């Protein structure tokens, strides 16, 4: 920097010398040329040296937590708090790649997770510029905004100065929550707190009638006496009753997942299904818990069933922050956490694939717990056998799932 400054002052000194020579030789043209050279060199140095003095860049999110699909205002303010104008100012503010941002110029970076919001503009003395953008929260997770880097310099761009606005902000986007269509989950609790509006798998103590046998119905529900009086196979129907406790297990592993795409849309849909189940049960005041082999800040997800009003936001935040990487497999999480659950608890397992280790874990847990398996059909992966669980439901993946309000759980 000293060599550059010395060079500029040498040019200014040369201009002064030309001006003095022109005055001594009584040459107005030479004197004016010397003055112009000296002033130009001085202006270039002052502009380059003081261009970022009094310049500030501020970014503000209207809120730091948002539901999936919500639009959040992002306000940007640039201030030139000095008498010296700026012929140009270039601001590069890091933005998350996953979220849609409207109202600004976004440029890709070398990182696959970030991009730059760029501002290129001149600024007058003591000018304040505000710009309003919109962030569309269309991806769950924690998303960071910033830091920002500033550049400016002399009018011809010969030299530049660099600055930064190190302040960063984060926004937490909850996973998408669907409005679930019946049927619901299975329960072995003889008497619930209320008759459920969901079509649950009822209990033998509440016989509501008989109906024709359907593939997948448990053989123990066949009414042999009624069958003997007719020519068709009949099974007993039971009056639904709400489960007292529900433990929801979400498997973050999907067949479409690879090392280069750790968060494919099929995984995000699976998480949304899990969040929808938890939200639906909490809205019905059913004690519900959340478990997963994934981690949040290095710790596993294990939230015991509770009916506390504060539990749902906590569980949705866990799903939003959850990483796909874990030290334990899903089957191991099922065995370890499921073994700690009290009798009478219903397990709801949300997974896109049910491999052999998961099936073995479910068979072990079913000895004392009711199990409802929700198979997220993404085009790959296998559902559990019907006779291994008390109820089996299917949530079919659709490429347009982000724009759907409801989700049908087909039996």
User: Mean pLDDT, rounded to whole units?
Assistant: 84
**Fraction of residues in helix:** 10-25%
Q: Find the count of extended strands (DSSP E, 2+ residues).
A: 22
Can you tell me the residue ranges where pLDDT is under 50 for at least 5 consecutive residues?
Answer: 1-6, 189-203
Secondary structure class reads alpha/beta
Query: What is the count of helical runs?
Result: 7
Our Rg estimate from Cα atoms comes to 33 Å
* Binned strand content: 25-35%
C-alpha geometry: rod-shaped
Oligomeric composition of the shown chains: single chain
Give the SSE order as H and E letters: HHEEEEEEEEEEEEEEHEEHEEHHEHEEE
The strands making up the biggest β-sheet line up spatially as 18-17-16-19-20-21
Structure description:
- This protein is α/β, with parallel strands linked by helices and 411 residues long.
- The chain is 24% helix and 34% strand.
- It has a six-stranded mixed beta sheet with strand order 18-17-16-19-20-21, with helices on both faces. It has a five-stranded antiparallel beta sheet with strand order 6-7-4-10-11. The protein has a four-stranded antiparallel beta sheet with strand order 1-3-8-5, with no helix packed on it.
- The protein is rod-shaped and about 130 Å long.
């Amino acid at each position: 920097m000293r060599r550059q400054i010395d060079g500029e002052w040498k040019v200014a000194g040369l201009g002064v010398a030309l001006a003095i020579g022109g005055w001594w030789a009584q040459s107005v043209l030479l004197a004016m040329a010397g003055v112009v050279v000296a002033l130009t060199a001085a202006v270039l140095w002052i502009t380059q040296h003081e261009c970022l003095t009094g310049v500030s860049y501020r970014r503000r999110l209207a809120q730091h937590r948002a539901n999936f699909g919500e639009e959040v205002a992002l306000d940007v303010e640039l201030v030139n708090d000095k008498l010296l104008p700026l012929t140009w100012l270039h601001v590069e503010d890091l933005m998350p790649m996953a979220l849609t941002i409207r109202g600004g110029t976004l440029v890709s970076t070398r990182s696959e997770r970030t991009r730059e919001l760029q501002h290129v503009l001149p600024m007058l003395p003591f000018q304040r510029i505000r710009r309003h953008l919109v962030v569309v929260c269309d991806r769950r997770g924690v998303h960071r905004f910033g830091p920002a880097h500033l550049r400016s310099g002399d009018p011809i761009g010969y030299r530049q100065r660099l600055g930064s606005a190190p302040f960063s902000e984060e926004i937490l986007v909850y996973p998408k929550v669907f409005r679930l269509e019946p049927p619901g989950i299975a329960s072995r609790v003889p008497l619930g707190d209320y008759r459920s509006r969901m079509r649950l798998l009822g209990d033998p103590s509440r016989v509501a009638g008989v109906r024709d046998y359907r593939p997948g119905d448990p053989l123990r529900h066949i009414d042999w006496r009624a069958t003997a009086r007719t020519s068709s196979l009949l099974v007993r129907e039971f009056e639904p009753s709400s489960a007292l406790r529900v433990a929801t297990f979400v498997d973050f592993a999907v067949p479409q997942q690879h090392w280069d795409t750790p968060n494919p849309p099929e995984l995000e849909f699976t998480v949304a299904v899990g969040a929808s189940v938890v939200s639906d049960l909490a809205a019905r005041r059913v004690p519900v818990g959340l478990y997963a082999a994934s981690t949040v800040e290095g710790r596993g997800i294990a939230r015991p069933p509770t009916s506390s009003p504060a539990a749902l936001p906590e569980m949705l935040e866990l799903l939003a922050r959850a990483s796909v990487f874990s030290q334990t497999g899903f089957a191991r999480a099922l065995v370890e956490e499921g073994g700690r659950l009290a009798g009478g608890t219903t397990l709801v397992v949300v997974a896109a694939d049910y491999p052999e280790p998961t099936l073995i874990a479910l068979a072990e847990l079913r000895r004392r717990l009711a199990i409802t398996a929700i198979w997220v059909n993404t085009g790959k992966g296998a559902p559990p056998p019907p006779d291994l669980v008390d109820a089996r439901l299917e949530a079919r993946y659709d490429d347009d799932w982000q724009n759907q309000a409801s989700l049908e759980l087909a039996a």
